[in-house]
Amino acid sequence: QSVLTQPPSVSGAPGQRVTISCTGSNSNIGAGYDVHWYQQVPGTPPKLLIYGNSNRPSGVPDRFSGSRSGTSASLAISGLQAEDEADYYCQSFESSLSGFVFWVFGGGTKLTVL
Amino acid sequence: QVQLVQSGAEVKKPGASVKVSCKASGYTFTSYSIHWVRQAPGQGLEWVGMINPNGGNTDYAQKFQGRVTVTRDTSTSTVYMELSSLRSEDTAVYYCARVLDASGYYLGYWGQGALVTVSS
After folding, report:
1. A81 Cα to chain B: minimum distance (Å)
2. Is there a contact between B45 and A38 if contact means CB atoms under 8 Å apart?
3. CB atoms within 10 A of CB A13
4. Between A and B, how many residue pairs show a Cβ–Cβ distance under 8 A?
5. Are residues B44 and A48, on separate chains, in Cβ contact within 8 Å?
6. CB B107 to CB A46 under 8 A?
7. What does DSSP assign to residue B100?
8. How far apart are CA B78 and CA B34, in angstroms?
9. 3-class DSSP state of A31
10. Is the confidence at residue B110, as pLDDT, over 80?
11. Which residues of A touch B35 (CB under 8 A)?
């Protein structure tokens, strides 16, 4: 059970726009920690898609965009393509009552391109 | 180019230990932290711990405190993750990953993964 909640699955037709949410709380996203997103094609390592809430690493198409607001973040994919079919994970940080800060991932969302 | 090459698959019995290696190349080894992330079959990603190769400081997820040790060998640019007291729930692919930027907290480069199977 992750502290960052993502929908288990989303789907869309080629060319459409889909969004994936990542819902946290005041001890993680709401505390001001940045959110990052990864794309994982089954059987391969994850790939960094968005960092610092809304920045794209070199080589990532501008069809992918991210945002953060309050205790949530979202990843948007426009102009959906068949190659976008993959699992998507958000990542941020959680601060415990003892002051320890640790990395956390969302549970992942499977994107199906219809 | 940045490369992280991990050791191969392992099969261990419950209660045993496993040590997975991650050899880095293509950059200054001591300039970027290396993290370990695992993924159980059909499950999501789980952060295990990390090491700063410059000095060897480590940080571990609370869940693995006392069972995991991450070390590095600067002479060979290799990071190791040792997990002890293995149980069946530790069966997973273990990835090493490097932060993209020296000042960032996101993983820009990943190893190919090493499957660790815990079975009697």
Report:
1. 23
2. yes
3. 9
4. 61
5. no
6. yes
7. S
8. 10
9. helix
10. yes
11. 103
Average pLDDT, chain B: 96
Phi-psi region of A79 (alpha: psi -120 to 50; beta: other; left: phi over 0): left
Residue B63 carries which DSSP code?
G
- CB contact under 8 Å between B62 and A46, yes or no, is no
Residues in chain A predicted with pLDDT less than 70, given as ranges, are: none
- Residue pLDDT, tens place only, A70-99: 999 999 999 999 999 999 999 999 988 777
A37-58 residues labelled b (16+ CB within 10 A) or e (exposed): bbbbeeeebbbbbbbebeebee
When CB atoms are compared, the residue of B50, B105, B108 closest to A57 is: B108
Share of chain B above pLDDT 90, in %: 95
